[in-house]
Amino acid sequence: SARNIDLPRLVKMKKRKQRRLEPKDTYARTNRTYEDFQKYIELHPDLPIVEMDTVEGTKGGKVLLTFLFRSSKLMLAFILFEKTQKEVLRVFNMLEYELGNELFEKTFPIILTDNGTEFGNPLSLEFNPEGTGRTRIFYCDPRASYQKGMIEKNHEFIRYVLPKGTPFEGLLQTDINLMINHINSLGRASLNWFAPIDVAKFTLDKETLKKLNLQKVPANEIQ
Fold first, then answer.
1. pTM of this prediction?
2. DSSP characters over 17-62
3. Beta strand spans in the chain (E)
4. What is the pLDDT of residues 98-128, one digit of tens each?
């Protein structure tokens, strides 16, 4: 028989907002859903799959754009000065400039990512400024980051070096490259104790490794 007015705490509480189950810009996901991704890799089983994500430092500061190659667990990371579509596009254009269109497309043929707003303009990522295709972007289901769980797990290695809440403002890309080379040189049980960089030598073009400054760190120097 109690009414809301009889419950002192209840009348002070705001009604909870319903969590959005679908991302705002659903047009970006047209033909790019996780179901579309599964169908695409069934048709193209030999193409390597790359997972993409971001790692935050402090709110509003620099973030890292990360890529992980499923076949080798090799990870890449690039500084974004802000968490925006413009910055993600800058890195894509930079990578294509370094690798060339043909090698970029060969290295990143399929990219699976989440529904973050920074990834909300897939056409700009799939096609370069001249309109030439360079990759295919697909999105995980909303609230289903486990669908790209390999890169989520691999971020733990970054957090060993840069704990959550660490500002990235003083970091240069050379610092990130050094960290990534150490991470990629660490042997993994899932790879029969080979390091991702060792496996990548068989799965990626040698020119890709060279142009992206990926080098193995001796085991006794890994930190």
1. 0.87
2. PPPPSS-S-GGGGTT-SHHHHHHHHHH-TTS-EEEEEEEESSTTS-
3. 49-56, 63-69, 74-80, 110-113, 136-139
4. 999 999 999 999 999 999 999 999 999 999 9
**For 35-85, how does the pLDDT look when each residue is reduced to its tens digit (9 = 90+)?**
999 999 999 999 999 999 999 999 889 999 999 999 999 999 999 999 999
- Contact in structure between 93 and 129 (CB atoms under 8 Å): yes
- Tokens at residue 191, please? 């790879």
Tokens encoding 188? 């993994």
Secondary structure letter of residue 81 according to DSSP: S
CA gap 162, 178 in Å, rounded? 13
CA distance 86 to 124: 10
- Per-residue pLDDT tens over the stretch 142-183: 989 899 999 999 999 999 999 998 999 999 999 999 999 999
What DSSP state is assigned to residue 14? P
| Distance separating alpha carbons of residues 127 and 136, to the nearest angstrom | 9
> CA 132 to CA 207: how far, in whole Å?
21
In 3D, which of 61, 68, 115, 113 has the Cα closest to residue 87? Answer: 61
Alpha-carbon gap, residue 123 to 132, rounded angstroms:
11
Residue 221 backbone phi and psi in degrees, to 5: -110, -5
Can you tell me the distance from the alpha carbon of 73 to that of 121, in angstroms, rounded to the nearest whole number? 26
Task: Report the C-alpha gap between 92 and 126 in whole angstroms.
Answer: 9
CA 189-190-191 angle, 5° bins? 90
